[in-house]
Amino acid sequence: MSGGRDTSASAPAGAAHLASRYGALASVLAAATAVCLVLAYHRGGVWHPATLLGLWFTACAALVAHAYAENDPDAFGKGADGRMPPLFTLGCLPYAMPFWLRQFALVRFSREPRWNRLADGIWIGRRPERPNDLPDGATVCVDLAAELSAARFLRSWSGRYVSFPILEASARTADDLNACIDALPETGVYIHCAQGHGRTGFFACALLLRRGLAATAAEAEARVVAARPGVKLRQAQRAFLMSLAPETADHLPTAEQLNRSF
User: Fold this and answer.
1) Sheet holding 122-125, edge to edge
2) Which of 4, 163, 176, 187 has the highest CB neighbour number within 10 Å of its CB?
């Protein structure tokens, strides 16, 4: 199952501060690259290594800025099978490398459990690297990481893989969330992003609300944090979850309010 964007529904505000940050970075890199081009030209060659690196990093920063500005988790090209095209992998390497390094450190040095049990047959955790990283009984793996390809073993795993990418510190539309959650079985579900903290917590709260396992967004978050203490939601993610709870339907946050709270 792919988590393609539902453009017919209004999307929740993305992480506007990240869009601004990467947009500013792209501008600075573009200016520095232009300087390198001028210097290289006067020295008799345009395609200096510094120029090529500058173009690469500028294009990557611009792509990331666009992704966050439009709240477009598909911008990185991740497919329904969890693979990312080589061109996207190479192009996004300057952005993705810190995530991979953090993932490497987590796997080898973190004392946090790889996963925690949220409810009967529902587990939340970080990106699995190998089959034994999944809890016993998991038959569905929900991958929320937009910037990381799925582990290779999942391509031949006997269970079902679901790609539902969410940008870091962001959300998806209620229609997208509900459609994904409704398509999942009642048990045997493993939910992860990169570390199993932000997006995993957000999706897990949405699942509890959708299935009636929590009456309020606050109750859902409390249950998720109790299960995995490292979970930390953004203020705008909390506001969006409040809009999913029936008793808060009269107090839906506006897009402007969500944008300010990231």
Assistant:
1) 115-119, 122-125, 189-192, 140-145, 160-166
2) 163
Q: Model's pTM, two decimal places?
A: 0.81
- C-alpha to C-alpha distance for 72 and 69, rounded to whole angstroms: 8
Q: Is residue 235 part of a domain?
A: yes
The amino acid present at 34, given as its one-letter code, is A
CA dist., res. 154 & res. 158, Å (int)? 8
pLDDT means per 10 residues in the chain (262 residues)? 44 64 82 79 70 88 90 92 91 85 81 96 96 97 96 95 94 93 98 96 97 95 98 91 65 42 46
Percent helix, percent strand, percent coil in the chain, to nearest 5: 55, 10, 35
Kindly state whether residues 86 and 49 are assigned to the same domain.
Answer: no
Number of domains the chain contains: 2
**Which residue shows structure tokens 């709270």?**
261
Q: Is residue 9 part of a domain?
A: no
Q: What are phi and psi of 72, to 5 degrees?
A: -110, 95
